[in-house]
Specification:
2 domains; about 40% helix; four-stranded antiparallel β-sheet; alpha+beta; 6 strands; two-stranded antiparallel sheet
């Protein structure tokens, strides 16, 4: 009784204790908010890294790892490993189909040579492909002027299959999965999505590009190779 009376009298007679309590409460709330935001940001960065490259990268500079098939078999035999995939990471020159005429634009790009099936098991490659038939949920959320709405589902399904296999199902010609930001024909919108400009005339699915790379050996030399 005496303790309650003394506490009530002390708190009611002075404003400073209330200010101190409010300051402590604000500091605790600030710490909680900062930790929550940073934890969410770190998880976002971690998940984005896994989507692009997986959890662990085993690499050897310049020349790469010889007999990588044996290494992958040994890695996949480990109890804590779900899947492994080979990657060739290099740079190249990409000859774009535009503008109209003989002189075409050249883009400097980072190239990743992959085995799409095993790469999709290690990363979120399959889910990251943009050109695919729209789901019912996406039809309710994408803009009305989204270019994918104007394309038949079989065209989008063919584009998705080419992205998953990196081969044309009809001709068997090797294909390239371009980053959607590579082509200047794709405009980045305010919501972060991309929209083909010019009513889709320069939609990359309709055109061919040429990628030129330089394979590097132990001597540091190599001859240019082109893939269409």
């Amino acid at each position: 009784m005496y303790q309650s009376l003394l506490t009530n009298r002390y708190l009611s007679s002075r404003v400073i204790p209330f200010i101190a309590v409010a300051a402590v409460a604000m500091c605790v709330a600030l710490v909680i908010i900062v930790v929550s935001v940073m934890t969410g940001f770190l998880n976002l960065v971690k998940n984005s890294g896994k989507t692009l490259m997986g959890d662990v990268v085993v690499a050897y500079p310049v020349t790469g790892i010889p007999y990588y098939e044996d290494l992958i078999s040994r890695i996949e035999a480990l109890p804590d490993v779900a899947a492994a995939t080979p990657i060739v990471d290099s740079f190249g020159l990409l000859k774009m189909p535009y503008p109209i005429g003989e002189r075409k634009e050249i883009e400097t790009v980072q190239m990743m040579g992959i085995e799409p099936i095993s790469f999709a098991k290690v990363t979120g490659y399959g889910e990251s492909l943009y050109w695919r038939p729209l789901t019912e949920a996406q039809l309710d959320t994408v803009r009305e002027d989204d270019f994918r709405r104007s394309l038949p589902d079989d065209i989008l399904a063919s584009a998705l299959d080419s992205g998953l296999t990196l081969h044309d199902a009809q001709t068997g010609v090797p294909e390239i999965a371009l980053g959607i930001q590579v082509s200047k024909a794709n405009e980045r919108m305010r919501d972060g999505s991309y929209e083909p400009m010019g009513d889709g005339y320069w939609w990359m699915r309709k055109w061919s590009v040429t990628l030129t790379t330089i394979p590097v050996h132990e001597s540091g030399l190599g001859e240019a190779e082109s893939f269409i």
